[in-house]
Amino acid sequence: MTAGPFGDLVFSRECRSPLSAVQPEGVTFHLLSGAVAGLRRSPALRRRYGRRGFAKAILKLATPARLLYCVVDEDGEILHDGWLRVGRWSRRPVGPRDVVVGPLSTRQRARRRGLATYGVISAMEAMRRRGHTTFFIGTAQDNVASQRLIAKCGFSVSAGPEPR
Asked: pTM of the full predicted structure?
C-alpha cells in the first residue's frame, strides 16, 4: 500500500491464474461491457442510479475503457456494483491493459454478506479471461471497511510508478 495524492491509499494485484470467489446464495454476477449491455439491464440500472444516473452510466459504458459489474438478487435488484476502467486512472499512471477497480457500492441492507468480495473477485476473473492481469484499487486512509475488502481480494503493496 502506498499513499497517493490527497492521502488516498493505492493497492495492486497481479492475476495470472484463475480466481474464484464464494458465490453468496441467491445472487448472480453480471459484467456489462458496452451501452447495449447496459440497455439490456435498464430496469435494474434505473432503479439503482435513477434517471440521470442511468443516462450517465450508459454514456460511460459506451466508451471502450469502461465496464460495470453488478451482483444482482433473484428479483433483479442490484445489491453491489462497481466500475472497471482499462488503461486510465487519474490517481497515477497505469499501463494500457491495467484495470482500475472502483468506485464500488453495496446497498446498506445487503452489507456483510460477502457480496463485495464476490463481485470484485468475479470482476477480476472476468477481466483476466479477457487478457488483463494487473489490477489497481484505491481507498481513503480512514475507510477501514474498504481496506478490509481490498485485503480479502488479495491486493497488496502498490507496484509501478509513483503517484503523480
From this structure: 0.90
